[in-house]
Amino acid sequence: MQDAITDFVENLSLHHLRNVWFQQHGAPPYKISNVKQYLMEAFQNQVIAYGGPIKWSPRSHDLTPLDFFLWGHIKGQVYAIPPPTLKDLLRRITDACASVTPAMLHNVQREIQFRVQMCIVANGEPFEQYK
């Protein structure tokens, strides 16, 4: 993970880095102190996480792009027809990840803004069932 994040962050201009936040999705590895410290340094304290400077409820499905967008997108492409082999499964996962376009990510960003407003209206309670 560290290599991927380092490569990502190093390819950003300082202007763009100021607009990038790391959002923890509740996985236990991100709670380890040296991992949290690395993330805080890499993202200049712009970390939304358990025990971070900005608290985030772990596994907040309504507000987590991995839950409301990415997993469904990948599963739809990978399992449309059951993959016959493990090699085919891995290829489909890679292809599905590569198929995410900048336009899709822009739509996800707009969806997050909408979902934050829904969260405010719902007083922080789950709201997905009302969408």
Can you offer a commentary on this structure?
The structure is a single chain. This protein has 131 residues and is mainly alpha-helical. It has 2 domains: 1-55, no CATH class; 61-122, no CATH class. It has helices spanning 2-10, 14-17, 33-42, 65-78, 86-98, 102-121; strands spanning 22-23, 47-48. It has a two-stranded parallel ribbon. α3 links the parallel β1 and β2. The mean pLDDT is 84.
Comma- or semicolon-separated keywords:
single chain; 131 residues; mainly alpha; 2 domains; two-stranded parallel sheet; globular; DUF4817 domain-containing protein; nucleic acid binding
Briefly summarize what is shown:
With 131 residues, the protein is mostly helical. The chain has helices at 2-10, 14-17, 33-42, 65-78, 86-98, 102-121, and strands at 22-23, 47-48. The radius of gyration is 17 Å and the shape is globular.
